[in-house]
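Hi R.,

Here's the chain you asked about this morning:
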Amino acid sequence: MLGRSGAQEREIGVGVFSDQAGAEIETVGGREPDVAAALDDVAVGEHKPVGRDDHARADAALAPGTAADLAKARAARSSAADTQADALAPILARIDPSGAESLRTVATQLATEGVPTPSGRGEWTAKAVSRLRERLAG
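And here is the predicted structure, written out as tokens:
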């Protein structure tokens, strides 16, 4: 029963134990004692060790990898961005052959033509065009 002194909600898990060793021989309305009812009455202790760390944390599968793993992932993202920029280069050259148009004008033209952004979501912005030009330049 959760109403016991010291019991805390949400802290029930492995290590929950019976508070009473057996059934009471009290009957209500002439019924037979319910031996299984003893399991219904449990005590929940605060900060009782149960062989687990109770602090929130990311699952091990989601934990960051080694420095080498991170470098490999960064290189893969950079390569994908370079490929995307190369695919957009001819469109950018057609829209702004001299490179003199404002970033906002180019962004508006790309959006008007329905050209997907490098991420494939969102809308073209002046900053996205600036990043595209920087990637193509260098």
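One quick note: The CA atoms of residues 65 and 71 lie 10 Å apart.

Cheers,
M.
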